[in-house]
Fold this protein.
Amino acid sequence: MKSPIDKIKQLFNTTPLLAWLLGWLAAALTEYFIGDAVSYYLGLPRIPVLFGCLLALKKPLLIPGATGYFLLIYLLPFFLVARLCRRPANYLASLLARGPVSLAAIIHLALFYLALHIWADISDYRLLLLKLTMVAVMLTLSLNVINGYMGEFSCSHPGFMALGAYTASTVTLRLFADDKLFGAPLLSPALGPYLFPLALICGGIVAALGAVVIAIPSFRTRGDYLAIISLAFLFIVKSLIENLEFVGGPRGMSSQPDYAGLPMVFLGMVSCVWIINNFVCSTMGKALCAVRDNETAAEAMTVNTGKTKIVTFMFGAFWAGVAGGLFAHIIRYVNPGSFGIQRLAEILAMLYFGGLNSVTGSIIGAVSINILSEALRPLELFKWIIIPLLLIMVMLFRPTGLVSFTEFKAEKLMRPRG
């Protein structure tokens, strides 16, 4: 007779990703339609915004109700629908496996986005948290390209993020908004949502140009010196923005147009994951890993190490700039203080918690740290004790992170099981 653990393992081994996505969609729909009624009968004041964690920590007497809500609304529909849909989902996955990978990916992403949209539609807090988590995924992935795959230690990522945020904000405010800093718009505001991706690209390009400024002198050094130079770049960018009055100086910029909706941020994150994964799996990515492992041997094998490093640094900075542009339009306000040491510590924590040299690890690290940070927010000071202790434990037992040196393969994720 199989034990419960063996049954759970068998369920995971025989259930394809398509069925799990249907289960997540069922849980989101269950909460959307009957979440209010369930929370009322369980004695909760409202629908828990974050799986019941915030309510349970704020009012410990509500722990039984919050736990029951999580079991009834999330776990039960999730596993029940995934189990019931296992065979038809495997059949559909086998059919999709015969066609182009892009079609299967679009179907999986559409289901995933639909579930996220329904879940986030219940409260503005969820929507904001979800969008900021997606931006965090982009930042962590872009830093992993430099600190993980390239093997250097850069501290300049918040600076690239700031360049992208201010550039994208300047473009949208100057072209599409009636702003106190820039005056009347140069173009019709109706064009703004359609041209917003171009503003994000402009932010990424400016961040990449900033990377060139730091890359040329920095890559003549190694180890601690590179970290110091990149940290100095961060302070230079922050101080420069503080002294530029036409972008608001220390007061910052506000009233950015509301262009960063959930579809736009989701598409930005998916594009970032897809392009970075293709980059690290390409010939350039293999050359990058060779430079990381042994630069002298890579040069002997005709790898242009200088060009490889500079292109990679610019590539990582570009995506940090795009993420910064999205961040500015999600918050609709930026100031130089948003891109300081604390931001650097957050990105580094997400990177090293998830794992180096792994696209999957970066996604897990960004999502885990963001959700955990919000879930522990009611603990106030103790939150900043628990999270560092957790990071220390990971560094002791998994020095390279939870999921390190693991390739991200969409075909493997979407294949039929069982």
The longest strand covers residues 253-254. The mean pLDDT is 89. The CA atoms of residues 191 and 237 lie 31 Å apart.
